[in-house]
Every structure is written in C-alpha cells, then in structure tokens.
Specification:
3 helices, globular, 43% helix, alpha+beta, three-stranded antiparallel sheet
Length: 88
Amino acid sequence: MIVQERHQVTDIFWPEPVHLQLKDGRIRLIKGPHSALECLVSDWPLHEGDVYERAKRDCMAALHHDCALVCCRDTFIKASQEVSFDIH
C-alpha cells in the first residue's frame, strides 16, 4: 500500500493586497501568493507567456518560502499588466 504525504501550504499574505479588475468587471482582492495563483489559473484570459509562467512559478515558490513575497507580488502585477487588467 502506497501512502501519499499531503503537504498543506498555509497562505502567506503580502504587506499590501492587490485589487484587480478582471475583464468581466469583477474586482478580485488578491491578498497573497495563494489567491494570486488561484486567479492566474481560474481568471486569466491567456494561460501562456513568459511573465504568466514566471508569476505562477513565483507564487508556488513563495508558498514554499523559496521566493520573496515582494518579488512574487511584483511578478503578479507585471503579469496583470501584460493582460491589461486594471490594478487598484
């Protein structure tokens, strides 16, 4: 019998959240790498591109304490700007 270990990742919050206006007009409050990763996977218009992939990698790394939160947040903002989301 094979038993898989489950690693629970607790959310880590950015010092300042990002208010992101999606293409459909909804505003998403992105508080940290976990919610940013959810947004990248579920709300992103294009699931491709260097900045998009880097943002996903940085979010995963930040959740595992392998990337600075400020770096992760900056990459997420760049990815948001690349797809012309409004940032508030």
